[in-house]
Specification:
Layout lengths: L1 H6 L7 H9 L3 H12 L2 H6 L1 H21 L10
Length: 78
């Protein structure tokens, strides 16, 4: 997964198509597993630059959701 995250933009196919072809899962399933992977020390040992980049993106997305008033499930906060 970290290898794909490092190089997916170099491919002619959309990222979603690469995910389905390599991992035989939906993009949502892929991202759920990727988020779990980012919490593991082995991921940081394998590719610290990619892990830190993805962690920064994750924080930005969470902040954006909070700023727009949506919860983690994409619905509006009450």
């Amino acid at each position: 997964m970290l290898e794909l995250e490092r190089t997916w933009w170099n491919h002619d196919e959309p990222k979603e198509a690469l995910i389905r072809a390599r991992f035989q899962c939906s993009p949502d399933e892929y991202h759920a597993e990727l988020n779990e992977l980012l919490e593991r020390p082995e991921a940081m040992e394998h590719d610290p630059l990619v892990v830190r980049r993805l962690a920064r993106h994750r924080v930005r997305r969470r902040r954006a959701r909070l700023d727009t008033g949506t919860d983690a499930h994409g619905g509006a906060r009450q």
